[in-house]
Amino acid sequence: MKHRTAPTGPGSSYDDEFARFFGERAHQLRSTAYLLCGDWHHAEDLTQAALLKLYLAWPKLDRHDRLDAYARQVVTRTFLAERRRPWRRREQLTDLPPEQAGEEGGPEQRMLVLRALAAVPPKQRAVLVLRFWHDLSVEETAAALRCSTGTVKSQSARGLATLRDRLGPHFHELSLTSKGGSA
């Protein structure tokens, strides 16, 4: 990777590039963080921490065509690192999410899936979010999590089994809905 020297001070081209990236991607990264942690306030904290890390690394990055993947990777790793430190867990002040645009499948189905996803262990949840929400390949997911493809496959299988157990009779109905069928 080439290292670039960054012009310093507000208004530099790096600040402008990062501000543009932030404006275009912060919401998407926050949604990924929410899928990982299940709490909008914690998702905001994760996103801010990840974007700070990305900002600090910004002048050194030369592959701006891969920024989305790198940013997702930073969010996911920040989530997993926090989960390893139980003293960093925070008290949840509210269950109310911020206003969101309507989603396909209705709010009842969305809440059902999100509650089931929250029951999946963190590493498995990270694999499921990257594989099925962001539609990454097994290899891309393994690279993002710095693990083997076999680990991605096993964590994915275990995570899906947990979702099946948690969703019970709703699992088949949700599978058909997500594939465009009708329940």
Order of helices and strands: HHHHHHHH
Q: What spatial form do the alpha-carbon principal axes imply?
A: globular
Q: Give the CATH H-level superfamily of the largest domain.
A: Winged helix-like DNA-binding domain superfamily/Winged helix DNA-binding domain
Q: Low-confidence parts lasting 5 or more residues at pLDDT below 50?
A: 1-8, 88-93, 98-103, 179-183
Beta-strand content estimate: under 5%
- The helix fraction, in percent, is 55-70%
Tell me which CATH architecture of the largest domain applies here.
Answer: Orthogonal Bundle
What is the class of the largest domain in the CATH system? Mainly Alpha
Tally the helices.
8
Count the strands?
A: 0
Distance between the termini: 50 Å
The whole-angstrom Rg is 18 Å
Please, what is the average pLDDT? 78
Question: What's the main sheet like?
Answer: none
CATH fold node name of the largest domain: Arc Repressor Mutant, subunit A
What structural class results from the helix and strand content? mainly alpha
Number of domain modules: 2
Q: Can you give keywords for this protein?
A:
single chain, 183 residues, mainly alpha, Rna Polymerase Sigma Factor, Chain: A, Arc Repressor Mutant, subunit A, 2 domains, 8 helices, 0% strand, globular, disordered C terminus
